């Protein structure tokens, strides 16, 4: 189990070392494991920043009995141990039930012996978001950020595994590359978290190109586009939007965040964006399937 004083990046590196030391899977697929064989590494896999909710643990434990142990826990093989990647509250409920009953319990599991550490971290976020008590958007994005910092898999793989949209994964990769040029290590990025790194990335990018330099660049680009005499740029915004998407899937979304674009929007345009934001809110909480955050 993680040391409370340990940093998330340290726990992740320790698990990476375990996996590299024993890369082979544990053997046959497991459907049940004794509770004593299941370990937790919350700094690596507990997506919820608030940790365990004691009342929720008690509620789950109260629904368990000797003939109906059906609360499944997802576990990953580190090369040395089975570790919970989803179901920390359920695992804690089994521990409480075993302590109360004095009986040795076997826990139903979905085992993931073959996936990488990065995929396991990404999967933790996606699986947690299917819970009745959903994780927040920030928690899901931060979990995906850890996966990106580990540098495993393609954009498509990272998106599918974490449940975060490809354009956001692309932005995270750009941020990671940029912050690395400023001397920031992946471990430091993991410990800082996505929101802080995102802020640093944007702030440092703007310092690299001050307002005067940005204005000169914009004037120059506008002149080049005008010389091309591409009337579709003005007359067909849908064509322009699609062209920008072809150039870079993340570019249309990044435009929405730029001050000049926002300042140029009229009331109708802003209303459309506000309506799109409102559609994300669903009864019972937020849905972040394919979540995007630019």
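Q: What amino acid sequence fits the structure above?
A:
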């Amino acid at each position: 189990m993680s040391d409370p004083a340990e940093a998330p990046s340290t726990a992740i590196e320790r698990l990476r070392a375990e996996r590299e030391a024993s890369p082979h899977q544990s053997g046959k697929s497991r459907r049940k494991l004794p509770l004593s064989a299941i370990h937790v590494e919350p700094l690596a896999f507990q997506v919820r920043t608030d940790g365990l909710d004691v009342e929720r643990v008690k509620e789950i434990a109260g629904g368990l009995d000797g003939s109906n142990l059906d609360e499944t826990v997802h576990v990953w093989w580190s090369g040395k141990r089975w570790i919970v990647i989803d179901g920390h509250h359920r695992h804690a409920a089994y521990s409480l039930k075993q302590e109360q009953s004095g009986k040795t319990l076997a826990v139903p599991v979905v085992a993931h012996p073959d996936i990488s550490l990065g995929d396991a971290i990404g999967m933790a976020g996606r699986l947690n978001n299917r819970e009745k008590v959903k994780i927040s958007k920030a928690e899901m994005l931060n979990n995906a950020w850890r996966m990106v910092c580990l540098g495993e898999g393609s954009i498509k793989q990272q998106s599918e595994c974490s449940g975060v949209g490809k354009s956001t994964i692309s932005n995270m990769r750009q941020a990671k590359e940029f912050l690395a040029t400023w001397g920031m290590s992946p471990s430091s990025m993991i410990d800082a978290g996505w929101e802080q790194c995102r802020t640093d990335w944007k702030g440092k990018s703007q310092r690299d190109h001050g307002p005067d330099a940005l204005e000169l660049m914009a004037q120059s680009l506008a002149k080049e586009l005008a010389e091309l005499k591409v009337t579709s740029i003005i007359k067909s915004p849908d064509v322009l939007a699609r062209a920008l998407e072809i150039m870079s899937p993340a570019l249309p979304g990044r435009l929405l965040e730029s001050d000049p674009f926002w300042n140029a929007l009229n009331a109708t345009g802003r209303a459309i964006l506000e309506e799109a934001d409102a559609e994300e809110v669903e009864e019972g909480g937020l849905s972040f399937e394919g979540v995007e955050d630019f």
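Q: And what stands out in the fold?
A: Residues 1-135 form one domain.
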